[in-house]
Every structure is written in structure tokens, then in C-alpha cells.
Amino acid sequence: MRKIKHLSFVSCVVLIFLSACGSSENTTIKVGEVTRSLFYAPQYVAIEKGFFEEEGLDVELQTTWGGDKTMTALLSDGVDVALVGSETSIYVYAQDSNDFAVNFAQLTQTDGTFLVAKEPHPNFEWEDLAGTNFLGQRKGGMPQMVGEYVLKQHGINPQNDLSLHQNIEFANIPGAFLSGDYEYVQLFEPTASVFEKEGNGHVVASFGEESGHVPYTVFMSKQSYLEANKENIEKFTSAIYKAQQWVQETDSAEIAETIQGYFEDVDLDILTSSIERYKSQGSFATDPILDEEEWNNLKAIMEEAGELPEGNISYDELVNTEIAEDVINN
């Protein structure tokens, strides 16, 4: 017994020594997410399952509420990494920024919004939107651009064929839909399912199923930060990849239980059904690589919306796939 106690004491001394030498200290990375959404489930899984910690990282997550605010935080060094639509990196690049944002890890690969109607429409057709009062998303943002793209694919001109409203702040859209006379709205999960459960709306279609693969939400950093912190960004991407694989292999109920703390006001059954809805339509990227076909699809959507800046929007400059490829291969 005395021998065991002695070994325990020695182990404690070794642990204290290692701690004092700094070998157990993690590197902090500040992340700004454009909104809080179940759409970003793999990110929360990476935190809760300890995948970042396994890589020697501490992630400080803050919600920055909107693409413009998120990019302002990134460019002003308020955050090190931004989780936001990749269209924002194109807008910054087009302004001839000396230190533009580079996309290095994709998290979602479809649009994440659903078309919600105030009244039931069991036999809904996209053409039913003509002449209606439609509450859209912010002009120039991915939800609105994809929404317009899908409508046009179904022969509906958003500016001429319906009454389109885009003057509501992102965070206030659900409340505005409830209190206003809007007939349709684009909503993310779990808000769409909450509306259904409470009888305040009915999900009639998915924009994600209609639009195909796009780099909808991507982790990006300033060029200078990537160059100075490549090893840490590789570790960050590795943690995200582990989470992506775990989400693919795990049932929706377990995922919901794992990340429930990020959505304390939402019932577990709603979280589960919302995650399943995203999984079933392939919204969560299975790896962090943003390929050129997805990038070109994004540019086509932006061009259709009249939001693609002139000039060469270079995939090679704005997208770094080497980090993700190294993570996957190793």
C-alpha cells in the first residue's frame, strides 16, 4: 500500500512539473458566428465533444449577428476566425482589401432556410407564391440570394411577381412575421419547427433542396492570420473534421442531446427533428473542403441576384484547400 501511495505522489509531482512548464496550456482562438443556428451543429459538437481541446485549442465563441457585423469583427481583429457565408469574403476582396479574408474550412453545403407559410398549404407549389406578401432576408446575404435564385428557377421574379420585404434585421424576422401581415417567410431551424409546433407557421418547402451545393457557411480568417498561425488553423480544421464525421455517424437524437445547451429555450424533440431535417437533405458538409464547383455555383447565384462584383473573383486566392486536404490525408 505504501508503494502505491509513493507512486501516486511521484505522478502528482510530474504532473505539476509539466503544468508549470506550460505543456498543458492551450491556444485560444476567438470565433465569431454570424448567428446561433442548429445549422452549425458540427461546430457545437466540436466544442462539446472536446475535439478542439484534443488539438490543444480553447475556442471562445461569440455570436456576432449578421454578415456585416461578423466581417467587421474579423477585419478589426475582434475575432480570429469568422463563421459566415463565403459571399462576404468576395465583398471584402472586391474592395481591394490589403488583408482579405480567406475561406479555409466549409461547415455547411446547402442553403439552411425553409419556406414557412402562415396558413397550411398541403398541396404547395412554388407558383403559389405569385402575388403574395413575402418577408425576405437581408439584401446581398446568402439566404436572400439563394431564395431569389430558387424563385427564378420556378419562373417567379421576386421583384415583380410578389410583394418582397427586406427591411427587417435578421434577428427580428421571426417576430416580424408573427406580428405582420406577411404570408410567407424564410426561416432557419429550429425556428421553423418551433413555429410549426406552436401553430404559427407551416414548413412547405426547402430552399436547400432546391439550390444544390454551395459554400453556404464557411470558416475564414484574414490572410495575415492564416500565414502567422497555420499550425493552429490546421488544428482547428482537424477538430471541425472530427465533428463533421461524428455528426455523419451519429443519430439526430444523440446530436441534439450533445448540443442542447446552445438552445436552452428549444425542446429536445424539436432539436432532434430539426437536425434530422438538415441531415436528410445533406446540409452538413462531410469534410471541410470547399471545392471549385461549389464556388462557381455561389458566383452564379450572386450574379443572378445582381450582387457579384465585377472583376476576377479568384477561387485560388480566396479559398485555401491545402489545410483541409492535409487534415483529411493525415
TrEMBL record:
Spell out the subcellular localization from the entry. Periplasm
User: Where are its TM segments located?
Assistant: none
User: Predominant location of this chain?
Assistant: periplasm
Q: Under what name is this protein listed?
A: ABC transporter substrate-binding protein
In which organism is this protein found?
A: Ornithinibacillus xuwenensis
Q: Which UniProt keywords apply?
A: Signal
Family matches, as Gene3D superfamilies: Periplasmic binding protein-like II
The family assignment reads:
Belongs to the bacterial solute-binding protein SsuA/TauA family.
Q: Where is the signal peptide?
A: 1-22
